[in-house]
Amino acid sequence: MKTLLVIWLLGCQGMSFPLAAQTSWRDSLSTLNRQIALSPRSTDLRLRKAAVNIELGQWDYAIEEYGRVLDIDADNPAALYFRAYAYLHQRLPQMAQRDYERFLMRSPRHFEARIGLAMAKRQLGRSTDAMDQLNLLVEQYPDSAVAFAARADYEAELKLYDAALFDWDEALRLQPRNVSFVGAKIELLCTLRRYDEARHTIGEALQRGVPTAALKHWTDQLK
Fold this sequence. Notes:
The chain is mainly α. The chain has twelve helices and no strands. α4 runs antiparallel to α5 (93-106).
């Protein structure tokens, strides 16, 4: 369940576009390059170009383009946020951390940036700092199932199993039919060899209306 921390940060990772779509993006890139040549200080055009670079998996080009935007407008929030996103994808957590922190100084309640900063600190091995960010996220968004799920995911990695189970329960309280959350709790209980509790979790999910087919993997596993 490690994707929970980056569920909206790395949404394009691993996506494969049909050839026609890639051709369309490349056509857009050519058009934007021509427009930028005529208006080199247009941050809007450069942000659009960087977005296309990301769609095409050209992460380093995107980082360069966001840097050019920031040379023109040093506090441009879109460039800071998405350059941090690209740095994180490229596993450059120190650079990502710097941009996320700058961005969060201006928008301290930005949900995705807070998770991004937690992920950057997680990649750096700074577990206390990463957990502090996730605790703050839950404090800021106590009604967000994803905030609890992100914290639970990291707690499980740190072997804080009781805390992780508590947070999975909170996530399920807020999104009782979320199959990913149900599965994460079951997997954790199986890791702990608490198989009866895992079966009980499946039963509770079925009672809440989670489709039987969605739970088949775990049902079969626990036969």
